[in-house]
């Protein structure tokens, strides 16, 4: 730690202080000497200061010999227009390959494993289409203990849905890239995002948790944006036409979990239908990719219950990471997803970072709902803090013929 601290420095300069940025550049040149050194700038600054800081770096502090990369934190704008203005400002000083828009939730193991699971296992890729998949559910549920604080005025749609949710769906549904190169992967992701139907406000349920004390409800409602969003998305391409992608993302809920559930279609003419039970949905095969609370891959299959008679039961093939990789976990030094992503920036691996055209395509998907909120001041449905979320979400699932997946 002492060795690390001996190589850290602090220079005081305002957000739009060109003189301060010049002093920073001079300090770095002194440290670098004659070496061919590269520079990474992590712009952990308020959104309103982002353009000034980035432009001053672009003008005064780029590496004279090596490469320069800047890391920008979400949210990437407030809507399509503000995001476009921000993108134009960044591109006026930097090339696209220098810009890394970071979302720490994309540094999770689950996200990195999506493409591995799909493209390195023959058992999944042939089934990965509308012929076999009935629906997909993406769930990000934060319990009372895990509840995060969202920026005033942004809310959960702009903070999580725009980046994490849509990036997860893009990685889950994209066509096979020609290589693992970041640009090849981002090319496929943007195709999926541009094929995704704009979100109809009628297919989105907004919610906001309320205090158990009635007199605080109004204060909460006026101080933050939506804390819950359930939505039905559709991808209008040959692979996914007609398959509903149901999203549930919320905070202040009863259960903490982050998972993707891929529900397959019923077996045509299933001769065991009468042996499954009254609810045929209970016999639906399902692939569950779970990140929290315990990282796991689960596959639901139908299996004969031991004993006399012929009764079927839905069983889970369970790959629990902490059991399967026990030696790795015993010797594992916990790392944060930020470490994973910053390591990618150092390596120049940009496949988990949104490109400018991805950002624009994502805002285009969400614009109808955001416009409805802004123009008509749509009030979110209140739900109990520590509850299951808005009741409207259950009706949304029923509207699209999707069984509500819950433990």
TrEMBL record:
InterPro entries: G6P_DH, G6P_DH_C, G6P_DH_NAD-bd, NAD(P)-bd_dom_sf. Coiled coil: none annotated. Residues 2-113 form the Glucose-6-phosphate dehydrogenase NAD-binding domain. Residues 116-404 form the Glucose-6-phosphate dehydrogenase C-terminal domain. Keywords: Carbohydrate metabolism, Glucose metabolism, NADP. PANTHER family: GLUCOSE-6-PHOSPHATE 1-DEHYDROGENASE G6PD, INACTIVE GLUCOSE-6-PHOSPHATE 1-DEHYDROGENASE 4, CHLOROPLASTIC. Belongs to the glucose-6-phosphate dehydrogenase family. This is Glucose-6-phosphate 1-dehydrogenase. It comes from Brassica cretica (Mustard). The lineage of its organism: Eukaryota, Viridiplantae, Streptophyta, Embryophyta, Tracheophyta.
């Amino acid at each position: 730690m002492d060795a690390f601290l001996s190589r850290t420095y602090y220079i005081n300069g305002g957000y739009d202080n060109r003189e301060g940025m010049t002093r920073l550049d001079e300090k770095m040149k002194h440290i670098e000497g004659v070496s061919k050194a590269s520079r990474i700038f992590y712009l952990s600054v308020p959104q309103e200061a982002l353009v000034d800081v980035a432009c001053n770096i672009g003008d005064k502090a780029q590496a004279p010999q090596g490469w320069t990369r800047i890391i920008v934190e979400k949210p990437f704008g407030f809507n399509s227009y503000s995001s476009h203005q921000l993108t134009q400002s960044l591109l006026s000083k930097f090339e696209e390959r220098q810009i890394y828009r970071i979302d720490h939730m994309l540094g999770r193991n689950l996200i990195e494993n999506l493409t591995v699971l799909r493209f390195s296992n023959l058992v999944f890729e042939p089934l990965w289409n509308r012929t076999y998949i009935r629906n997909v559910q993406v769930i990000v549920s934060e319990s009372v203990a895990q509840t995060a604080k969202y920026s005033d005025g942004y809310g959960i749609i702009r903070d999580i849905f725009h980046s994490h949710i849509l990036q997860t769906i893009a990685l889950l549904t994209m066509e096979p890239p020609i290589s693992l190169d970041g640009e090849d992967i981002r090319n496929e992701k943007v195709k999926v995002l541009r094929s995704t139907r704009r979100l109809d406000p009628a297919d989105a349920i907004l919610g906001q948790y309320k205090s158990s004390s009635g007199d605080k409800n109004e204060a909460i409602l006026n101080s933050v944006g939506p804390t819950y969003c359930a939505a039905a998305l559709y991808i209008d391409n040959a692979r996914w036409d007609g398959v509903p992608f149901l999203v549930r993302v919320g905070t202040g809920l009863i259960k903490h979990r982050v998972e993707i559930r891929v529900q397959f279609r019923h077996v045509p003419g299933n001769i065991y239908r009468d042996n499954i039970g009254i609810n045929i949905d209970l016999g639906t095969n399902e692939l569950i990719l779970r990140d929290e609370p315990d990282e796991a891959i689960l596959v639901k299959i139908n299996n004969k219950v031991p004993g006399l008679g012929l009764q079927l039961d839905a069983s889970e093939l369970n790959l629990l990471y902490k059991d399967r990789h026990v030696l790795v976990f015993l010797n594992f030094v916990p790392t944060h997803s930020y470490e994973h992503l910053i390591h990618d920036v150092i390596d120049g691996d940009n496949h988990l970072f949104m490109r400018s055209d991805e950002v624009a395509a994502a805002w285009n998907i969400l614009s109808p709902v955001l416009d409805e909120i802004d123009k008509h001041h749509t009030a979110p449905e209140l739900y109990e803090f520590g509850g299951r979320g808005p009741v409207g979400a259950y009706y949304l699932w029923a509207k699209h013929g999707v069984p509500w997946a819950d433990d």
